[in-house]
Task: structure prediction
Amino acid sequence: MDKNTSSTTELKNAGLKVTIPRLKILELFLHAETRHVSADEVYRTLIDNDIEIGIATVYRVLTQFVEAGILLRHNFDNEHSVYELEHGNHHDHLLCTKCGKVEEFLSEEIEQIQRDIAKAKQFDMTDHTLVIYGICKQCCKTIK
Ligand SMILES: [Zn+2]
Ligand SMILES: [Zn+2]
Result:
């Protein structure tokens, strides 16, 4: 199956009509080097690739993708909302507050502690988010 066919299928499976902006944005996520992308980065990448699109359309399509379960939106803070493909594999995040870079991590120990806490509180946990804020290795180097 070529990449076009699979993107088309994914849109149809999500109950979305196949349109050029939707295809282009989905493909950007499927082939992006970084998994966590902001709306602005989506917009700039499309413009750089000579795809005519407005920022409003980018936001609209991203919202539709979140509602359709194709993308996850993380509102780390007002300046750093990023989107990533929903693969169903849970993980937590580290956010660099200087450059906005997002890294992923998963600690089975932390996961278990959270399940234990919920259980002790007789709380039926459906989800959790954990974000570590700070300065990434790269930015630490430039500060010094
Ligand atoms: Zn950084
Ligand atoms: Zn992630």
In short: The pocket of zinc ion (ligand 1) is lined by residues 96, 98-99, 101, 136, 138-139 (CB under 6 Å). The chain has a mean pLDDT of 90. The CA atoms of residues 92 and 129 lie 6 Å apart. The helical segments are 3-13, 20-31, 39-48, 55-67, 108-120, 137-143.
